[in-house]
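## Example record

The block below lists the input lines for one assembly entry, exactly as stored, with component labels intact.
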Amino acid sequence: MTHQTSPAATASHADMANCIRFLAADAVQAAKSGHPGMPMGMADVATVLFTRVLKFDAANPTWPDRDRFVLSAGHGSMLLYALSYLTGMPGMEIEDLKNFRQLGSKTAGHPEYGHAPGIEVTTGPLGQGIATSVGMALGERMAAARFGADLTDHYTYVIAGDGCLMEGISQEAISLAGHLKLGKLIVLWDDNSISIDGPTSLSTSDDHLARFAASGWDTTRIDGHDPEAIAAAIAAAQATDTPSLIACKTVIGKGAPTKQGTSATHGAPLGDDEIAAARSGLGWTHGPFELPADALKAWRAAGARGAKARADWEGRLAAADPAVRDAMTAALSGDLPEGWDTGLKAHIAALIADKPKIASRVASQKALEVLVPAVPTLVGGSADLTGSNNTKVAGQEPVTPPDYAGSYIYYGVREHGMAAAMNGLALHGEFIPYGGTFLVFADYCRPSIRLAALMGIRVVHVMTHDSIGLGEDGPTHQPVEHLASLRAMPNVLMFRPADAVETAECWALALQNKGGPSILALSRQGLPTLRSPDTEAMPSAKGAYVLAEAGGGARKVTLLATGSEVTIAMDARAALQAEGIPTAVVSMPCWELFAKQDQSYRDRVLGPGTVRVAVEAAGGLGWERWLGEAGTFIGMEGFGASGPAPDLYLHFGITAEAVTAAAKAKL
Amino acid sequence: MTHQTSPAATASHADMANCIRFLAADAVQAAKSGHPGMPMGMADVATVLFTRVLKFDAANPTWPDRDRFVLSAGHGSMLLYALSYLTGMPGMEIEDLKNFRQLGSKTAGHPEYGHAPGIEVTTGPLGQGIATSVGMALGERMAAARFGADLTDHYTYVIAGDGCLMEGISQEAISLAGHLKLGKLIVLWDDNSISIDGPTSLSTSDDHLARFAASGWDTTRIDGHDPEAIAAAIAAAQATDTPSLIACKTVIGKGAPTKQGTSATHGAPLGDDEIAAARSGLGWTHGPFELPADALKAWRAAGARGAKARADWEGRLAAADPAVRDAMTAALSGDLPEGWDTGLKAHIAALIADKPKIASRVASQKALEVLVPAVPTLVGGSADLTGSNNTKVAGQEPVTPPDYAGSYIYYGVREHGMAAAMNGLALHGEFIPYGGTFLVFADYCRPSIRLAALMGIRVVHVMTHDSIGLGEDGPTHQPVEHLASLRAMPNVLMFRPADAVETAECWALALQNKGGPSILALSRQGLPTLRSPDTEAMPSAKGAYVLAEAGGGARKVTLLATGSEVTIAMDARAALQAEGIPTAVVSMPCWELFAKQDQSYRDRVLGPGTVRVAVEAAGGLGWERWLGEAGTFIGMEGFGASGPAPDLYLHFGITAEAVTAAAKAKL
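Predicted structure tokens for the full assembly:
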């Protein structure tokens, strides 16, 4: 229990909270855009949290055992920037606040992970913060189970707005947190009854307290402007072993005399006159970006409050069992352990020798059987498709609260919540999360995948049933546009391996991709092993490579394919070669990696001047990049259909015969 | 209250329910794939619903005032097909059940709207059915308000599974339905405690009854195998004026002696031995696809139960005020009213004359100001961004229960729920829904947009703030990949108009697009009117057209652009022309429509052999289709940034100078 009065509370709570209010109002005014209402409304809550409660050391904002603070209502970014400046986090200066929302400044319109200290996660798209916090709070429990409660024992605090709670993802998050009994997760709801369109009563009648309680949370409602009530509620929330919701009844834009309590304060500058009137009303005699010295001093003291706790923690880490210390340090480094790929290389060699015919989802499981023991930071899971995604391997125990020692999470039918929780696990620092669903349901988790890409964090999505090859489940379950739509997203590695060997290689590449999400698109149907022993080592690392060079003369035809259709391309090659047409097959498991290769390699692979035909059981958008204007694409032109997979390939004309004919038509 | 015993109940309830059970088990077995567990578990509920409660006339399955039945748990499709066959819906024969999940059959793996009678909506992606049903139930209330309760007065029933309720979209749906007081919406939850990974206790601890109650629903829990309890619960639910949840405690796969109550029955054939044992256990002496004559007769009688209600309704329609009858009939036809575009044409002419500089989101509002009065079936809304999306115009009253006479819906911060509800409104039949959010949040509603595309239904998404041009809100709010990812989706018209004239034209095209969703990507920032009076009429209809032909000689450069970047292309053209380089600008507001034009038109527009440069403030995936290998794309290569829009265009090099330089570099 860390409820305490601030050690240097020589300034009043009101003055300290008003520092936030005016920094927010003035910065938004200077930027001529932004959201003053939320920081002004939640200034009292944030002041109590940061001066009395939050375990943090402003001088060391990334200390591993700090409490996490997530501003789910990311539009209120000035609250976070003000707190960062006030508490004295390194590199956040008053000039940064004056440059709010300017190009190149630390103080972006919404908090961008990595841009400034104190930003635990990029937020803005509503509901993402609260959903990511579930992963953080889970990571805390899992790290404590692995490395001991003396080294990991902190809370995760979230400020969420009405919008966050209206988003569906919030329900997945709340439900998952309740089920996982994440007792150290505390959500402070900015219960201001205002949304952009006007009063929340325009669009919602929910009893959120009852909703959270239905998922096993403890709940309370307080006056969000009463510092003692805030402190007491947080203390009570800390004392429970369930996640906690504190509804903080606030006035949006509190302090703006004519606009407070209305949506006019939400997303636009208050205006000079209103701000002047606010100064007058609150007795604030300081100019824009000027703060009373005693209040700033008290804030800085609050920022230093946690220095001892951090030093104590470092002492405990130094004194810890070396094996534990090393394991925790290694986990936090994010580096893969020495020799992590030794087993994988042997596995690949065995696959090339044995040439199994297995679905790439099964091949993924076989790769995981090797990788999971070798990379203990891997945390698996699936959105209720474990057996179909093949995401669970021997030795992986599920996380079953109150026991968090496991490494597999049953996420339930919550694709979006899973993706956000994976982001939170990755952000917490000790884990490499992977999670499974069907590729078609990438659509359900897309906003969270996008945030992972924007933040540049390592998560691995295992997305099986990646084409019409899944068969009878039909078009609702058959991805057509998903490969293109994920290839379109910046900073994503979209893998679609052709066989068991490529699947293992793509897993290795995904784990090595520390700077963003990787997605593995995997087949339901069985695929032969295509790789021959004489291929260069790990060719998937180049994104695309010549799987089979043309024989019997200079290459005349280049067949491009990914995933399950590489087999079709190989069959077409055999037919063309049999007719004396020298034909190469290029497997392209990852376009993004291929695009990074130099022109000479790309030309060597793509064979400019040859007849090019691409085959992929998906829509063709983007294939022109590799085909050129004269090339031919064989794939889907619309949605799929329900039927056995072989029938569907015939029906949609995705066959070796079609590829062969297309090539010959251009010769 | 329609609780009654079946008029021809000469067969026992058990026999009638077992007809469903064995049709499902046998069809899945024949197909060697499918989901027997849910139809077997919910057979009793469905039997009561269809034989005693549901207002329908099997011979006329699309009668407008029928009760709607939505199988949200779409994997249980055999339940729906069995009911369709048993009640005698036209065109559903026993052969169709034998062809379950075969290519070309009516009986797809998941229910596909339009494939077979009785399918009100395509389902399978979990949560979509329940969320769509909210739009249907809202459509019912709105139609009743417009055309009278004597012509529209029906219930909407939903069977939803645990998976549907775990999806976040269910919360948006539940919350919206509660707020809108959709008292005639009744959800029958297949409360079987089983998910694919095993018992639901693996991943959830929710008290769903409490959750629904928190959103204003009435709730109850019953034995889902007790027909009288089922009937009584539905009767009670009908009597309330709130939406109703009935938790039907069932045994999944009920009747399969060794597998019932386990996830083994969920998604795989039971096996011949298990089915034989089920026959034995239930005393079912009939072979596969054979039914006892008395049970089938009783089912057919149940299917004919509603014939009188339908005939009575037709009588009331015939006797109705002709103005009401005509208005309702016109609405149900889906046709746009005579002269609907007269005002729009005048509006376009005025725009060309006046040349306003306005954001295309504002231009959209101006188009709506003309269209909303002319097309009374338009129902607007926004996911809490009304003022930013510019979706509400004078004269549009919000829907405020219990008054459903309005035509504007405050959807709240529920993008996904909005998109699904729009689908439901369109499916109900009388309305053309449009709804607004930011383009970046297309990701939140993508699964519902996909279903609209798959079903081929008319909905219009107004998606504003369509690029870095939104400025300071930064990369979380700036779409980069969204145009490509939506262009990748089959059967979507993705519009990105360049100015106020194109915006009006694209609205017209969207309303005329009866066969699928249309999306309007609109700017936050002001755009000059570019269209000159001498352009052919409605050139946007061709998807792309020459906005400004090259001057001073044969065209040497073709600049391709969409939306706000057409202005940049026009500036670049001016610079190139000033240097004596004949340059054309092609505006491409809709790729999909352009792709449908013949080759000669496309060549005339694209100018093969000319230097081609495309400019779009988005990622480049797919532009090669129009650029060819030698063309140059000027756009985004990664995520955006926070800053004023003009700074961002400069920073990311999306400028007339860059376009000019790119063209000259290739000359």
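Residues 1-8 of chain A have pLDDT under 50 and may be disordered. The CA atoms of residues 20 and 83 of chain A lie 7 Å apart.
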